[in-house]
Amino acid sequence: MDPRTKGAVVYENMETEIPGVFACGNVVHVNDLVDFVSSESETAGAAAVAYVQNGEIETETVLPLAAGEGIGYTVPQHIRLDGVQKSVSVSFRVRRNYGPSTIAVRCGPNKIAAFKRERLAPGEMEHITLPKALLQKSGRPADRCCGGGAAIMTETIKELICICCPKGCHLRVDTANDYAVTGNACPNGAAYGKEELTHPTRIITSTVRITGGLYPRCPVKTAQAVPKETMFSVMAALNTAALQAPVHTGDVVLPDVCGTGVDVVATRNMEKVK
After folding, report:
1. What is the CATH number of domain 202-266?
2. Domain coordinates of the chain in residue numbers?
3. What pLDDT digit, counting tens, does each position of 167-196 carry?
């Protein structure tokens, strides 16, 4: 029995530690949806038929699957490489609520797979699929990254380089701790680190066509930063804009560009050529 799930310990095909005995559904761990139970039952049923026809899976490589930082448990708890055809589906729950995070699969100090999630909650079961080729990396005797096996864990620390000034501080932002920032040399870095992960923005610089001026294009920029996801829309609007000389620094070229509430302004004087 697994003390964390209060259910049976199973292998990749839902076979328990007792040969020929298979388990699935809520006798292994509490499932959110009947669809999850049905999926596990299909795996267990197919494995039971294979057991009757072919006998026990013979393998020298059994990979323990550990629940690492932030993970409550995993199902299955062990994976036999010879029992895997293409991939293994792993179910698990986290221990607490998380914002944007990464589910990392590690073999010792090496990260061998990563799965991004916008949010994680203990009340919602999570699933990832581990390809056999990846599992073979964890199970090779010559692979010294671990003693055979893998650990699944949450990663909430995001690493960024601050672009507020040329110093380029290396920031570490903890998404699980109200986006607390370390590594910054000034308050601007802390503000940048949190904003970059919650509401990233950018100041856009470009040029716009102009007629009657000294040059065919006039340099412009957004007066303030705009949401990062609007960058392509803003650039498309600038590509269709056209000015007539004269234009002066600070003149509004496009008001409220793309509904962002930010104006695009000229960044140089462009007098009319006679």
Report:
1. 3.10.530.10
2. 60-155, 158-199, 202-266
3. 999 998 887 678 889 999 999 999 999 999
